[in-house]
Amino acid sequence: MLARAARGTGALLLRGLNILIPVLDRIRYVQSLKEIVINVPEQSAVTLDNVTLQIDGVLYLRIMDPYKASYGVEDPEYAVTQLAQTTMRSELGKLSLDKVFRERESLNANIVDAINQAADCWGIRCLRYEIKDIHVPPRVKESMQMQVEAERRKRATVLESEGTRESAINVAEGKKQAQILASEAEKAEQINQAAGEASAVLAKAKAKAEAIRILAAALTQHNGDAAASLTVAEQYVNAFSKLAKDSNTILLPSNPGDVTSMVAQAMGVYGALTKAPGSGAQDSVSRGSGRDVQGTDASLDVELDRVKLS
């Protein structure tokens, strides 16, 4: 839609049929109500950290009031362009170089707000502003590239150190777990070994107790003393045959070859021990066994002769 402003009366001619008075009225301004695109020329701007940038942009605006756009300002597009450039320099001076690249959207929004506040009396509304290119001086660009490379090397070093730390932690944790498992295994082994030894000792004790019980029962039977004498004699002969084999120090009785006296001495000790707990019962056993011993003296003498010969 086109809006025409008539000279002289200052009337606004809209679309449709309009009557103009010759000589007095003529079309002076023609304003388009469509959205207008204006290229903002490249300009220099100094950032907060004193870096000079070359920056340009694109401005999108629309005439909202043709009368104000015609009579409020001489050249609305030029005025808006100059306002955009000054506002851009002002906004860039508030930001450092790093923030200029990170906050382009907020920078565009601030420029649009500043233009709308100033261009309201011109009947113009800025719809949006976009920064096209930002040119950095070559030395600053080199410094930025070096900074980026240093940052990347720093990240690589940090990642490598973190990887080394994680590796060391994992190795230490593995050794810790291995030691814990080894100690638990050793503990279980010791417990099992102790349980086995205890079972073995208990089994030996039970076997020895059973052997003693059977031996005691055998001694109370017929010819028990004779059998005990024979066993003592055999053990004496076996011990006598092992003399001077394990050590040079030997303790011998006064007459080591007299097996009969040794057996009699051992049986005397056994008789003294058996009489101590209860003499009455043992006397009856002794009387009964005395009769049996007389009957077996001959067989005992023969067995002792056999043991001596062996």
From TrEMBL:
Keywords: Mitochondrion. InterPro entries: Band7/mec-2_domain, Band_7, Band_7/SPFH_dom_sf, STML2-like_C, Stomatin_HflK_fam. One of its GO terms (biological process) is mitochondrion organization. Pfam families: Band_7, Band_7_C. The keyword Mitochondrion applies. GO terms for cellular component: mitochondrial inner membrane. SUPFAM superfamilies: Band 7/SPFH domain. The keyword NAD does not apply. Residues 276-297 are annotated as: Disordered. Residues 1-148 form the Band domain. It is found in: Mitochondrion inner membrane. It comes from the Eukaryota. It is a lipid-anchor. Its main location: mitochondrion. Mitochondrial protein that probably regulates the biogenesis and the activity of mitochondria. Stimulates cardiolipin biosynthesis, binds cardiolipin-enriched membranes where it recruits and stabilizes some proteins including prohibitin and may therefore act in the organization of functional microdomains in mitochondrial membranes. Through regulation of the mitochondrial function may play a role into several biological processes including cell migration, cell proliferation, T-cell activation, calcium homeostasis and cellular response to stress. Forms homooligomers. Interacts with MFN2; may form heterooligomers. Interacts with PHB1 and PHB2; recruits them to cardiolipin-enriched mitochondrial membranes and stabilizes them. Interacts with CACNA2D2. PANTHER family: STOMATIN-LIKE PROTEIN 2, MITOCHONDRIAL. Belongs to the band 7/mec-2 family. This is Stomatin-like protein 2, mitochondrial. It comes from Oryctolagus cuniculus (Rabbit).
